[in-house]
C-alpha cells in the first residue's frame, strides 16, 4: 500500500507539472510584428444595430405589466431598447467626426448588424408571419431617412458596419412561443420582439442544426454585401453564445476575425470553476492552434447607461484603454447600441455624452493621440504587419512594421500593389 501510494503521488505530481508547463505554453501567445503600445490603436465595437427590437416605441407598454411576458433576465435598460433612427445615427457620426487620431483620421464607429427580422402581421388570410431583410424593416418600425444617415456616415468614413447575427434569437423558438398566450400574442402583434423565454433562445444555441445555421449565415452574408457593398469582415456572436462547430462554420464561410472570444459562452463546457477552467484552456489553445483566425478581445467597456455613475464608467474605460496599450494590445471597446438608441431621450443623451467625453479625453494630448481602426485592420496588422481598408471614398494603408513592406489591395475585381515605408500611413482617394 505504501509503495502504491508513493507511485500514485509521483504520477500525480508529474501530471500537475505537465499541466503547469502546458498552461505556460498555452498562455505564451505570439504577439505578432506590431508594437501596439506605439500604435495606440482603438476599435469601437457596438452590437445590435439593425435589430427590430426590443420594442418599436415607448408607448407599447402602456396599460401592460411588461414582467408578465416573462422573457427572462437582462439589464433593465433594455426594456426600452429600440431600432435606431436617422438622428441617432447622425448624432453618433458627428461625435466620431469631432475626434481626430494620430494619423489625422477621424474616429470610426463599428456597428455590428442584425440582418433579418420576423413580423406578425394582419393580412387578407388572417394573421401571418412575414420576414424582412435589411434594408427593410417591419411596418411597426418606421425609420424614415435612417439609411440615408447610414450611407452618409459610411461615405464619410465614420461608420464601418460588421456582422452580428441573422435574427439574434432562435427563430423556431419565437414562432413557437410568441403566440402561446393572449398577452404574448398581443405584444407580438404590436411589434415587440421579446417573447416568453426569449432571453435563453440563443440564435447559435448548440441544439440548432448546423446545416440551418450554415444556410442562415450564407443568406446573411449575401444580405450584408448587398446592403453595404463589401463582404463581411468580422463577426460577434449574439449573446456571446457559440461553440467550436460554429467557429469552424464561420471559417468555412470565409469569416476569420472573431470578436469577444473572452466573453464566449459555451454551455457544453459545463458550469462552475471546472467550466471556467476548460473555457480558459480552450481559449488559449485556440490562440495557439488557430493562427489562421484572429481573436479580438474586448478589453475596454463603455456601457454607461447601465451604471448609476456614467462618468466613472468613462474614466474606467479610459484607464483600460491605456492599460491595453501598456500591454502592447489594441484597445477594443465594447459599447452596445442601447447606449445610443433608446425610447427615453435622456438615456440617449447619457450615452452620447459619455462617448463624447471618452473621445475628448483620449484625444486631449497632441503627443499621445490614439489611432482609430476597425477589426480588419487589426487582424491584417497582427498577421502581416501591413493593412488596407476602404473607409468612405479613401483607401487607408498602414505599415506598422520596422521595414518597407508591400501592400496588396484586392477589392472587387481590382488588384493594386503599393510599397509602404516603415511605420507609415497612406490615405489616398479610391
What distinguishing features does this structure have?
430 residues; alpha/beta; 6-stranded parallel β-sheet; 3-stranded antiparallel β-sheet; 37% helix; 19% strand; globular
Set down the secondary structure blueprint.
Layout: H1 2-26, H2 36-39, E1 41-49, H3 86-97, E2 109-114, E3 116-123, E4 126-133, H4 146-155, E5 162-165, H5 171-177, H6 182-189, H7 210-228, H8 244-252, E6 257-259, H9 272-289, E7 294-296, E8 300-301, H10 310-326, E9 331-334, H11 345-362, E10 371-372, H12 375-384, E11 386-391, E12 394-399, E13 405-411, E14 414-420, E15 424-429
What does this structure look like?
With 430 residues, this protein is α/β, with parallel strands linked by helices. Helices cover 37% and strands 19% of the residues. Strands 1, 2, 5, 8, 9 and 10 form a 6-stranded parallel beta sheet that branches. A 3-stranded antiparallel beta sheet has the order 11-12-15. Helix 3 links the parallel strand 1 and strand 2. Helix 3 packs parallel to helix 4, helix 3 packs parallel to helix 11 and helix 7 packs across helix 8. The chain starts with a helix and ends with a strand.
From the alpha carbons, calculate the radius of gyration and give it in angstroms: 23 Å
Question: Helicity level, as a percent range?
Answer: 25-40%
Secondary-structure element order, as H and E?
Answer: HHEHEEEHEHHHHEHEEHEHEHEEEEE
- Structural category: alpha/beta
Categorize the overall geometry: globular
Overall mean pLDDT stands at 91
The protein's oligomeric status is single chain
Q: In terms of per-residue confidence, which ranges show pLDDT below 50 for 5 or more consecutive residues?
A: 8-31
* Count of discrete alpha- or pi-helical segments spanning 4 or more residues: 12
Provide the β-strand percentage band. 15-25%
Our measurement of the CA-to-CA distance between the termini, rounded to an integer number of angstroms, reads 78 Å
Biggest sheet, open or closed, and with what strands and sense? 6 strands, parallel
- Total beta strands: 15
